[in-house]
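User: Could you check the structure of this?
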Amino acid sequence: MDEPLLDVADLRMHFPVRGGAVRAVDGVSLALHAGETLGLVGESGCGKSTLGRTILRLNRPTAGSIRLEGTEIATLSRPQLRPLRPRMQMIFQDPNASLNPRLTVGRILEEPLIVHRRGTAAERRERVLWLVERVGLRADALSRHPHEFSGGQRQRIGIARALALQPRLVICDEPVSALDVSVRAQVINLMAELQEELGLAYLFVSHDLSVVEHVSHRIAVMYLGRIVEVADRATLWTRPSHPYTRALMAAIPQPDPAARRAAGALLEGDPPSPLEPPSGCALRTRCPYATEECAQRTPELRELQPGHAVACHHSPPG
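Assistant: Sure, the predicted C-alpha cells are below.
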C-alpha cells in the first residue's frame, strides 16, 4: 500500500492544570490515505476535536509524531509550519463562529489566497468565483455577509474557504451537527463529491454514528483520549468487538427493543475525568466485562484481523 498521507504515532496532548494535567489525547496512533475518509467517533469530551486540532498543529503536542506526506510537523515552529499550512485545512462545527461577520463572502474566500500570496488579483477573483459556485452558491453571494445566509449555506461557505488553498487533508470537526436534519444530507453529498473530484482525505469527527457510518471508509472509536477500536465501516458496523463500541451501537435509537439488546450492553455512569483517569483500562469503571487484569494493565491496540484492531483484554462475546 502507498505511504499514508497522514501518519500519527503515539500522539499526546496534555493540558497542564493546577494539581496535574488533563490528558485530552493520550497516545493516539492512526493513518489516513489520500482520497480516504476516516471517521472518528466517541462521547463528548473524549478528545476527538482536540485530536483534530493537534494534528493540524493548532495545538503544539506534548509528545508523539505527526507526519504529513512524509514530513514531520509535530516539532516544527510556526514559521516552519507556514508553507505547509495550505496542505491541511479544517471545516469547523459552527459556521456562525468560524466566519468573520464583518467581511463579505468574497473577502472571506480570498483572504487565504492573499495571506499565502497565491496568484494575481484577477486570478484570485477567478478562484473565488469557482469556489462559491462549486459549493452550490450563486455568484452574487460574494458581495453579501455571512448573516445573510442560512446555516447550510454558511457551512458551504466554510467548506469553500477550506478548499481555497487546494489542501490534501481536511479535518471535519462535526461539520453537520449544527445543521437542520433537512440540509445535512445535502452538505454530506457535497463533501463526498468534492472528495472524489479533488482527491481529498477527510478526518471526519462526529458523535453521530449514523452520519459517520454513511461517510466513512474506516472508523476509529475514541474513549478518554485513546483509540479503542479501528475497523473498516462494514466490519465495525456488523462485528464491533470493543465493549465501548458495542455500547455506542446499543445507544442508537431502535424501533425494536430486542435489536437494541442484541447490539450490546449500555454503559452506566459518566466518563471518568481525564485529569484522573482510572488505572489500567479507562473504561473498566463502566464496563460490564471488567476484571482485575483491566485495573492492572492498560490494553494495547492489537489486530484481531487485517484492518481490525481493538484495545481490550476481554472483548465481549459476539
